[in-house]
Amino acid sequence: MLLNYAIIIKASVQTVQGQYSNAKQKQCSVTDNSRSRYTSPFSEMETFLKIGSMYQIVPVAPGEQQMAGGPGGSPLKKKLSHEGRPLVMASMLGCVLVLAAVVAWCYYSVSLRKAQLFKTALLDLNKDGFIIHNQAGAVVFTMTFRSGTLDLDSCSKEGDILSCTQSDSGKLNFFIQTVRPKDTVICYRVRWEELQNKHLVEHVMAYNDSHWYGGAETATQYWPIRFQGEEEPRPFITSDVYSNRNAFGGILERYWLSSNATAIKINDSVPFHLGWSEKNRTLRFQARYQDSPFRPLEGQQTFPELSYRVCVGSDVTSIHKYMVRRYFTKPIKVPSADLFKKPVWSTWAIHKTAVTQEKLLRYAADITRHGFNCSHLELDDRYTADYGEFDFDPQKFPNASGMFDKLREGGFQVTLWTHPFINYDSINFGAAVEKGLFVREPGGELPALVRWWNGIGGILDFTNPDAREWYSSNLNMLKSRYGVTSFKFDAGETSYLPRQFSTLGPLSNPSTFTRRYTEMAIPFMEHAELRVGYQSQNISCFFRIIDRDSVWGYELGLKSIIPTVLTIGILGYQFVLPDMIGGNAYPNHTAGGLNGLPDRELYIRWLELSAFMPAMQFSIPPWAYDNEVVKIAQKFTGLHETLVAPKVLELAHVVLDTGDPIIRPLWWIANDDEAAYKIDSQFLIGDDLMVAPVLEPGKQERDIYLPAGRWKSYKGEHYDKGPMYLTDYPVDLDEIAFFTRVL
């Protein structure tokens, strides 16, 4: 009987050994890519089975069996038979436990190998998204797949590429490729492309308790970004945020930067829509063609694709420098030095559309009489009889040639306002229709009429070489006939395109229209001015932030200027014109003041801030107030020319090579300082000149944050124990606080 038990147990051990061998072969077949980095968990099981095979029950001899029991069956035999049943059960239970152990080890092994499969560098992928760690192991980036989940059984890894072919909704092309362009930078190329009929792809990025910067100019601008409310994804395209305060602005790029030293750039090919959730602290990145102005390229399927690059660096400044050098174009030259040194004087805020030859000449004479310099005099809307014409209204400007001669004698260069519209009542409208110069209706025959702030008309199709040539020839005619120096290019946002339209050159991304419009400024860029930009960093002219209201706050007011200039600087636009000092004095959008003028204190504080920007622009003149304001203006235009402009010009030439901001956030030199990431009312010019303007009404003091280092104030005070706060630091009405970093 015991011999039979021995045979059963030995057979069980052999069975376990055989199952172990099969499981081990299966485990080895999962993947061989990372074998050199993997120690098999079956090594312990092998030891267990070897030990188990050493202990076998030794059978008794036949004689011994008879002596023990006798022919008739002794009480001993009955006792053994009775006691043997538990032994059989124990043996069978042991076999089951061994088998369970083998299965558990197999499952653990496969799970471990899969876990290794879904890791690449510092990124961990799961079916619902991925996370990225920094070198210290902290999570710095989280992306969730909102529109679908991956089928992990369809995933494989080859070299630096982790790819999957199935999601819960069907076939797809998904991959994450790891790229190490520098020792301190690691990047991940991510692509999710639907291969079956699905309407959208959406990924959701979490803030991860970090501060984010970039994206777009907005009407209410905060630094860092502060998304408010719950917003469904909408087209991320250039828009006029003065007329639509909830839209994305005229200067935008698909780029965001985090204080966690991470950056993300959405690929140009993506039909990109952006939404957000204030509650969940997330940004929603969505790709779709349905109910969208984006269109697939001709011959391309309408399946959406969401692709982007995420890069992680050692600190926020270095990762931004890498991204700008790698993905942004750079200006090819520096605009005229006069623009950096001397103010621009515009007719817009002071005269609006009522400007005339007489008013322009008087304005120029007053500039000279009050002792101010001028880089150029900007003749704004409206000097033509109708919108879309390219000569002077003889009623308002009876002797335009003589006017230009007189202005040149006074040392003035003159630029003219221009735009892409031709109103239906202009003499040029019919000619443009006949030549096919307009953006057209979808059928391609009739011009698509649009409404803009000065009426209804057609908009020139700048994808059409004939339209570009016609527009340029008219600008060159003004330049040669009157000696015009350059032009202020207004509008250009895609929000002025009709809802349904066709262009000669296909526009899969509507913001490409903005890019084509900015190219019209290239021949005139020494003194040119644009207010829109998309992939336009190489257009070497000044980019003006959208019209400001004459108010103190963050919505197109004084407080919005620093966040806006910092934001478009992060987007690669460094030659910034911060709009007109005191704002535009629009009715119902002007604080305080008499006779329609902006509040006097607001005007002075605005003037002081502008003096530390790359360029200054007046329209409402200082003498519209009183002699004290004139003296303050003379003081700060002088300070701008002697202190600020030389430094800005030096940095401007560096921009051509690096793209680094001229106007910089405090974290640029203090990227391990949490306080520096949140300060939106101070800024740096370069690395060693810090400016802290007063931006609150009725204040002649402010709190100032000094990052680590040694600083010397404009009053001669020395501070050697930063970082520190200077509480209620006194700043008189005719002062602005600034500090020089002492090395």
TrEMBL record:
TM ranges: 87-110
Record's keyword terms, sorted: Glycosidase, Hydrolase, Membrane, Transmembrane, Transmembrane helix
Top-level division of the source organism's lineage: Eukaryota
InterPro entries per the UniProt record, alphabetical: Alpha-glycosidase_related, GH, Glyco_hydro_31_C, Glyco_hydro_31_TIM, Glyco_hydro_b
Biological processes, Gene Ontology terms: carbohydrate metabolic process; skeletal muscle fiber development
Molecular functions (GO terms): hydrolase activity, hydrolyzing O-glycosyl compounds
SUPFAM superfamilies: (Trans)glycosidases (SSF51445), Glycosyl hydrolase domain (SSF51011)
CDD domains assigned: GH31_NET37
Domain Glycosyl hydrolase family 31 C-terminal: 659-741
Annotated Glycoside hydrolase family 31 TIM barrel domain residues: 354-643
PANTHER family found in the cross-reference section: GLYCOSIDASE FAMILY 31, MYOGENESIS-REGULATING GLYCOSIDASE
Family: Belongs to the glycosyl hydrolase 31 family.
Designated name of the protein: Myosis regulating glycosidase
Species assigned in the record: Oreochromis niloticus
Organism phylogeny: Eukaryota, Metazoa, Chordata, Craniata, Vertebrata
